[in-house]
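dude i think i finally got it to work??
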Amino acid sequence: MGFLDKLQDTIDQGLKNSKDLLGKAKDKAKDLGEIGVTRFEIKQLESQAEKLIAKLGTKVYEVLVVDSQKTVSTSTAEVKEILNAIAGVKEDIEKKE
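look at this
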């Protein structure tokens, strides 16, 4: 095997290694991108849950103060609806995690 053949083999091996490395880097970047999207979706769901919890607090206040009821329970219609929505969002968060 001559010098030019050895040089060609070295160049070919270098190109093959570069292609392999770029392929792995591409796959890793894709994985990181998907993780980033999932984290963003989880943050949005957490924000939605916080808004629902604030809505729940407002509704409890309305029932107790504005409507002058003495108690509120999980069976109170509007409260139950909001609690179910919160549970649904928390379930979605758990699935994403």
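The chain is about 85% helix and 0% strand.
im so relieved honestly
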